[in-house]
């Protein structure tokens, strides 16, 4: 059987939270252990520049995200784990793809359209605060993906369009020149739940309702106690399907334990008790990784060495690819 190449990037603008863990990191690390797949995971630090102008935050986030993936046991002998900005061929490919990507295609990107719409609703000029980085974001993402001929791209729903655009750009390039790129496909994990945050909306940094993944034990307990619930008293049946506490439980518990908790809800478990059990469950899954994480955060030299080694491996692929691309478009030595 042929090896399947899987690739995904993580934008370095925040601290990993339980939603990232359940929705993206845990499934990615599990999938990377598959003998028949080859995983490319990277810190999308150039993408971070599009939405963040705080250099300290980008540096801190890069460190936290790298430490998180390593602490959770990513096998860096098997998976290729690197930082986008360590692969100069990606920037070069970005430009070359800019010359194949239709502006009209970029006009349709959701993130760009949302920015324009917000401006119009505010009665402002449509282009206010819209940078070329935001506008051409999908081209950089296409460069990330096409560089490594990746087949499967695990992403959240909001990124499906970008992967389709990468496909479009690849097709157009192949048509204009020669068949250099294979066509990627987005994969959305249907049961990799979109976790709710402490206020019941989707857990997201932009809603300020996240529970960071590696909070110290005490703070984790506090954060779980703060999850919003209704006011039903102990003994009164509670609807599990309308509860963030239950949803979080289901994201961490086995099938049997989930069924048990469902019954406890119907039997009227007290919120305090449900939260106490939830804390214990999450804490036990994360405790060892949290110790690793704390050690790694105190050893940035090790994280850096791992990333540089990953970049070295990635560049064996990107170096070869950029030669093909240059040749295809007519850039290179006079002969
Ligand atoms: N844009 C993605 C996000 O915000 C991150 C990303 C950058 C990415 N390059 C990528 C994801 C390539 C998959 C493939 O989530």
Features:
335 residues, mainly alpha, Rossmann fold, Tyrosyl-Transfer RNA Synthetase, 2 domains, three-stranded parallel beta sheet, two-stranded parallel ribbon, 13 helices, globular, binds tryptophan
Write up this protein.
With 335 residues, the protein is mainly alpha-helical. The two termini are 41 Å apart. The strands form 2 sheets. It has a 3-stranded parallel β-sheet with strand order 1-2-3. The radius of gyration is 22 Å and the shape is globular. Helix 1 links the parallel strand 1 and strand 2. The chain has 2 domains: 187 residues, HUPs (Rossmann fold, 3-Layer(aba) Sandwich), CATH 3.40.50; 82 residues, Tyrosyl-Transfer RNA Synthetase, CATH 1.10.240.10. Bound molecules: tryptophan. The site of tryptophan has 12 residues, from strand 1 and helix 7.
Tell me, what is the CATH class of the largest domain?
A: Alpha Beta
- The backbone outline, from C-alpha atoms, is globular
Instruction: Flag low-confidence runs.
Output: none
Largest sheet: 3 strands, parallel
Bound small-molecule species? tryptophan
Distance between the termini: 41 Å
